């Protein structure tokens, strides 16, 4: 049996400003899926990149008073540098203005669609939102303003190249309705189907070179036009695989892959679930297998975005509060459907309540008790710990629950399966009270000593199980817990804090409490 290949991508963001927490959400979600699929023995390619060829980038560079290439290089570097503070296992990064794979692939893709008769040129007038890099009809606006950016689109009149999207209306509907092209969650699938049912119109796929300020990839054979930034950007999923430059990656990760998974925000769903599949059909390429859609992060109800100026710097957050705290908040707080409002108080509370007080406290207590009652030698008892059925069941159920949740693109539910073990283990300690078993053992009850061995063995196994299942979500923390629970010459390391409590303004940072007063 051949090993499955899974290709996981994020969208590639405009680099008109520094990265924000909203894109960090997508990166972390993609990283979890990549790590999860790798743990199941699959070959995985996790890819991200930057969208450099946008008019938004040109306008931002002009406002900054520097050259466009210099401007996008600086911001792109900040996006690429998120890999370290977010602990990302990225395999490849593509930059659309710099990577030699990209232009060759975009040109090949253009010609493939032209060969099927799907490209034509015509005069067009319409309302264009630079923020979205998209034309809108008046009925799609709110009091004449873009719903996404709140700005009034520009009236644009010029001759452009168009793509025959209308030709693929029925085929797209059937592919999505039957989940041959799977869109999750269902609310987003229904949104796409409703959009298709309203009738698909051909769309413009080029801009005049003059209006684009000469920035972008020229249309093959027509230097008066540059390729529309969305046509250019969507192609990255193929161009990074050598679609235009040769090699085996295109076969391994696209035409021959079992899973081709796009993670996207709801604001760009139309491009990924309608335009892109139609473009692929035209070019004779397989479609993605899964489009997984997340909603927005907000601050005080306002969407985090570079254009609006409502932003939170994920690199600065990681430096101040730690990678684990950021990843945990993104995975535990953000719902499968619906926006999530970010505050520092919520970040701190989630980290302190669950990571420090809940998980960190558990690991510290268990390791400390094994040192106190068994001189650091972790008992190897396989006997069922008295009253430990709930903990045993939580450990047994976790793999299935995590698999099911991640298949449904539900990170809250997946992390809850891990957290179920933590809750059961802490509940078990408070119920069984190992320190009282130790006292009875010291009083000469040999049978109680065997029970204590079984309890401690069950608890250290639970901690190791937590680390194993936590690895895709919090790789740094999982590695630390594994190290804390590993034996060297049969002995556990001395207990040390797994998580530091995060200081709120005006308070001091302290390690997690290990409740030693109850473990005596």
Automatic annotation (TrEMBL):
<keyword id="KW-0436">Ligase</keyword>
<dbReference type="InterPro" id="IPR041872">
    <property type="entry name" value="Anticodon_Met"/>
</dbReference>
<dbReference type="Pfam" id="PF19303">
    <property type="entry name" value="Anticodon_3"/>
</dbReference>
<keyword id="KW-0547">Nucleotide-binding</keyword>
<feature type="domain" description="Methionyl-tRNA synthetase anticodon-binding">
    <location>
        <begin position="380"/>
        <end position="506"/>
    </location>
</feature>
<keyword id="KW-0030">Aminoacyl-tRNA synthetase</keyword>
<dbReference type="InterPro" id="IPR009080">
    <property type="entry name" value="tRNAsynth_Ia_anticodon-bd"/>
</dbReference>
<dbReference type="GO" id="GO:0004825">
    <property type="term" value="F:methionine-tRNA ligase activity"/>
</dbReference>
<dbReference type="InterPro" id="IPR014758">
    <property type="entry name" value="Met-tRNA_synth"/>
</dbReference>
<dbReference type="InterPro" id="IPR015413">
    <property type="entry name" value="Methionyl/Leucyl_tRNA_Synth"/>
</dbReference>
<feature type="region of interest" description="Disordered">
    <location>
        <begin position="488"/>
        <end position="520"/>
    </location>
</feature>
<keyword id="KW-0648">Protein biosynthesis</keyword>
<dbReference type="InterPro" id="IPR023457">
    <property type="entry name" value="Met-tRNA_synth_2"/>
</dbReference>
<feature type="domain" description="Methionyl/Leucyl tRNA synthetase">
    <location>
        <begin position="132"/>
        <end position="366"/>
    </location>
</feature>
<dbReference type="InterPro" id="IPR014729">
    <property type="entry name" value="Rossmann-like_a/b/a_fold"/>
</dbReference>
<dbReference type="InterPro" id="IPR033911">
    <property type="entry name" value="MetRS_core"/>
</dbReference>
<dbReference type="Pfam" id="PF09334">
    <property type="entry name" value="tRNA-synt_1g"/>
</dbReference>
<protein>
    <recommendedName>
        <fullName>Methionine--tRNA ligase</fullName>
        <ecNumber>6.1.1.10</ecNumber>
    </recommendedName>
</protein>
<comment type="function">
    <text>Is required not only for elongation of protein synthesis but also for the initiation of all mRNA translation through initiator tRNA(fMet) aminoacylation.</text>
</comment>
<comment type="similarity">
    <text>Belongs to the class-I aminoacyl-tRNA synthetase family.</text>
</comment>
<keyword id="KW-0067">ATP-binding</keyword>
